[in-house]
Amino acid sequence: CREAYNLVRDDATEVNWVTFKYNGSTIVPGDQGVDYETFKRKCTDDVRLFGFVRFTTGDAMSKRVKFALITWIGEDVSGLQRAKTGTDKTLVKEVVQNFAKEFVISDHKELDEDYIKNELKKAGGANYDAQTE
């Protein structure tokens, strides 16, 4: 899991996201990729997974890389598994330690890239978007 995490953090790789999924009751590295839309397709109604995703935010004056930890719990996941996901997230956070914002999502609309980028921008403090007046 730490290797997968480091791939996303490494500026020398193109990997922008990784998932951590369940193999029975064990959390293991899942998929990885470059395109956020591909990550979103991994978030189906019958799974729960953790995603570590790199986003580039900012404007022409200042580009910044921000990281998000996304806990996805599909609508068809049982109540017991939902409850266990919260406890398991503690284990994931032992590996995934640096992120700007954490999301717990079960609605596909909240996976929208612009929504997440906007939330990351808010969490980032100073905002130097070009002012128009």
UniProtKB/TrEMBL annotation:
ADF-H domain location: 1-121
Subcellular location: Cytoplasm, Cytoskeleton
GO aspect biological process, one term: regulation of actin filament polymerization
Cellular compartments per GO CC: actin filament; cortical actin cytoskeleton; site of polarized growth
InterPro entries xrefs: ADF-H, ADF-H/Gelsolin-like_dom_sf
Family recorded in the similarity comment: Belongs to the actin-binding proteins ADF family. Coactosin subfamily.
UniProt subunit comment: Interacts with 5-lipoxygenase (ALOX5/5LO) in a calcium-independent manner. Binds to F-actin with a stoichiometry of 1:2.
Known function: Binds to F-actin in a calcium-independent manner. Has no direct effect on actin depolymerization. Acts as a chaperone for ALOX5 (5LO), influencing both its stability and activity in leukotrienes synthesis.
This protein's name: Coactosin-like protein
Organism from which the protein derives: Phaetusa simplex (large-billed tern)
